[in-house]
Design goal:
about 260 residues; alpha/beta; 4-stranded antiparallel beta sheet; about 30% helix; globular; binds adenosine-5'-diphosphate; binds magnesium ion
């Protein structure tokens, strides 16, 4: 399933936050969205997953017109791992993950054996099978994030949006989450704050600044010291990391 965002603009009262953004994620492509804090990444992603209504523009998941479709129909295709995952009511970890099955169920349909085994499988994938009966609110930020990922895995989406999914995680779980997501082999659009991880995992990047797409391309083509300097307002040198063969970035003092 592919994603097409066409001339999307979002405003809050009179302030334009996302300005005429167009982007494309092809089937099975892992696409990263990078840019400084406040440039509009989360706002763009929220308008794609229907939490915010854009002022203008279109969003398509393959042939599905997201703006004109019900949340349930979109949720059968699209999984979302958002940035903040606090709950006012408490649920167990298993209950949280089981919610991922909801878009596929009728109104009064209860979970069957297949749902339960999908839920157990998702918990195993994120190494939380031992926490199934714990209360969600009692978990650490990183564990919560893995529960949310498990819920999305249980949803079996055909496309996934992630908003800085590794924010609360130590490096082992950052890599675990990115590896799990990459192996799904579906289209992914992910806002990522770590540029070297973005370069490592993404097939293609969109760079946002002030609500606009400032650059796009393959990580190795666009993540130059000039672009990083201009977009993030830091000076740095880039190099080929001798261990990974991938992009290395050495940050010098901020200008
Ligand atoms: P990013 O995810 O790139 O850090 P955001 O999309 O969260 O950026 O925010 C972009 C800008 O939009 C920020 O200046 C933020 O304060 C503003 N903003 C976000 N949500 C709202 C809102 N609901 N009302 C007004 N301004 C908002
Ligand atoms: Mg954000």
């Amino acid at each position: 399933m592919n994603l097409t965002v066409d001339h999307l603009s979002v405003s809050f009262s009179t302030v334009n936050i996302v300005k005429d953004v167009s982007l494309k994620v092809r089937n099975k492509q892992f696409v990263g969205l990078i840019g400084p804090n406040g440039c509009g990444k989360s706002t763009l992603l929220k308008s794609i997953y229907k939490v915010i209504k854009p002022r203008q523009g279109d969003v398509f998941l393959s042939e599905l017109d997201v703006m004109k479709s019900s949340p349930k129909v979109v949720a059968q295709k699209l999984g979302v791992v958002g940035q903040f995952n606090e709950l006012s009511f408490d649920f167990t970890v298993r209950e949280m993950v089981a919610m991922g099955r909801t878009p596929h169920k009728g109104m009064l349909e209860t979970d069957n054996q297949e749902d339960q085994s999908i839920v157990s499988g998702a918990l195993r994938r994120v190494n939380l099978e031992g926490h199934a009966d714990r209360s969600y609110n009692s978990l650490s930020g990183g564990e919560k994030q893995r529960v949310i990922l498990a819920r999305v895995l249980a949803q079996q989406p055909e496309f996934m949006i992630l908003d800085e999914p590794t924010n609360h995680l130590d490096i082992k779980f950052q890599l675990q989450i990115l590896n799990i997501v990459k192996k799904l082999d579906i289209g992914i659009l992910a806002a990522l704050h770590d540029l070297t991880l973005a370069a490592e995992y993404c097939d293609y990047l969109y760079v946002m600044k002030d609500g606009q797409v400032a650059a796009s391309g393959k990580p190795e083509d666009i993540l130059t010291k000039e672009l990083i300097g201009q977009v993030f307002d830091v000076s740095c040198e880039t190099y080929r990391n001798p261990v990974t063969g991938g992009l290395g970035i050495a940050y010098l003092e901020t200008r």
